[in-house]
Amino acid sequence: MKITQTAQKINLNNIVDISVDVHKDTLCFFFEIDGKEFSDTCGNRSTVIEKRLLSYHKIAMEHGRKSLRVICEPTGQFQNKLMRTARRLGFLTNYVNAESVAKFRVVESNDNNKTDKKDPRVISTLGKLNKVVKFRMIGEDYLMLRKLHKIYDECDVAITSHRCRISKLLVELFCDYSFKKDFLYSNSGLALVKQYGCNPYKIVEDGYTVFCKKMKKTAPRIMSRTLERLWEDAGSSALNDMPAGYVQVLEEYLYDRLDDYFKVLERKEKITGQMIEILKKLRQDDPLIPPPTPKVISEKNLARLLAETGPLSDFDNWRKLMRYAGLNLKTRQSGTFQGRNKISKKGRRLLRKVLQAIALPLVKKGRLYGDFYHKKKEETKMPGNKAMTIVARHLLKKIFGWYRSGEAFDEQRFFTCKSRHKKLAKAA
Fold it and tell me: Contact 391/363 with Cβ under 8 angstroms?
């Protein structure tokens, strides 16, 4: 017989749950006190919200209750005014999982209908069962770091988009261009842009001698075989006779695209510097934050990671952190049926993306996870994406342990459990 201890629920006898269905312009309220039901609708505006919550608090006080707990679904940014106003007024705040609301709606009313009146009631029921999610207040520095990382990620996506469009445009303008994509952003490639705008007709018109002279003036270290290859590509592309006006449009558009690309790249570098400065400030307040470690994690990636996790001290154990990241495992088992274990992907998408970015260079042979990763792929024939997910889970768990220990990075301890590490230390 297996006996487990039931977790104690929070005593909410002196609290009134205010359940709210949040929309862009309106809020739908519902709460119950002593058998009486109250429902209301108001505009999603800070001054209006404050008046409503104060009036509900007055009703709660008349019925012998001390405070309110505001519960809603996270809906992008539209719930922020409600939750921040509630916290400013000294009330409790909680989220409910949107998926839980959708599924519990069917349980409660035995139908799939969705209305503005029905949803607050479902949220209220989930609140009574205490099936709520903590509304985290992560502090100004972490809030800034998280927003900067969001902008950083948008810049990263924009850079990829710009490079794809430039590559596609280059195929049309310089059709027989045979170099790899990265060449255009090297000194030699940028010299080609500066002198000729990647226009093969201008290159052929100048002639080989003048072409070499101009290119070497802008990129002195350009190799002779690179010049020869560019000249051959230009001569072949020039045979694709296109109207001069059309070629000029393509050339000007390429300049504009490259200008946009370098502006976004500059913004990304600026944001990286701001994130690192905030991390240094956070480390002064929390000395347990690990330092940047060569061949493990850089200062930039550490800042990106903490931007998504928030204060690591908020998590009681690594399992809660894993759930927050959406890297916790979900299982499907019934009787003799045993489904595959998969990660839930219900947590922070950007946190999983950052972990993958940190893990990617670490799985190369000779690096921290090289043997671990390639053993999974070669011996167990595991797909690469699944092996990377295992690495990401392991890495997040170890970073959390590294933070909690407050010790310097130890590669031998990294892949050894606590008990075995103690035995090895005693034996040494």
Answer: yes
Which position has the token pair 């797909």?
A: 383
Q: Which two tokens stand for residue 88?
A: 């400013």
What pLDDT is recorded for position 424? 62
Q: What local confidence, expressed as pLDDT, does residue 428 receive?
A: 58
The one-letter code for the residue type at 349 is R
Q: For CA atoms 163, 168, 169, 170, give the dihedral sign.
A: positive
pLDDT tens digits for 270-284?
A: 999 999 999 999 999
Task: Give the containing element (helix H, strand E) for 38.
Answer: strand 36-43
Distance, CA of 178 to CA of 156 (rounded, Å) = 26
Asked if residue 93 lies in contact with residue 135, where contact means CB atoms within 8 angstroms, the answer is yes
Residues 6+ apart with CB under 8 A from 139: 311
One-letter identity of residue 53: L
Distance CA 234, CA 179 (A): 12
- Distant-in-sequence, close-in-space partners of 287: CB < 8 Å, separation ≥ 6: 406
C-alpha to C-alpha distance for 395 and 407, rounded to whole angstroms:
16
Q: Are 303 and 354 in contact (CB under 8 A)?
A: no
Distance CA 322, CA 89 (A): 32
Picking from 116, 119, 135, the residue whose alpha carbon sits closest to that of residue 70 is 135
pLDDT at 154 over 90: yes
pLDDT class for 377, splitting at 50, 70, 90? confident
Task: Measure the CA–CA gap between 135 and 152, rounded to whole angstroms.
Answer: 24
Distance (Å, whole) CA 242 – CA 230: 19
Q: What is the DSSP letter of 240?
A: S
Q: Cβ(44)–Cβ(26) under 8 Å?
A: yes
Band of pLDDT at residue 189, cut at 50, 70 and 90: very high
Mean of pLDDT values over 394-399:
93
C-alpha 160: how far from its chain's center? 16
pTM, two decimals, is 0.86
Question: Strands 133-134 and 92-95, how do they pair?
Answer: antiparallel
Q: What are phi and psi of 277, to 5 degrees?
A: -65, -40
pLDDT of residue 399: 93
Which residue do the tokens 């940014």 mark?
77
pLDDT at 210 over 70: yes
| pLDDT tens digit sequence for 23-80 | 999 999 999 998 889 999 999 999 999 999 999 999 999 999 999 999 999 888 899 9
Pairs from 6-10 (Cβ < 8 Å, separation ≥ 24) = 9/130, 10/130
Half-sphere exposure of residue 61: CA atoms within 13 angstroms, side-chain side? 6
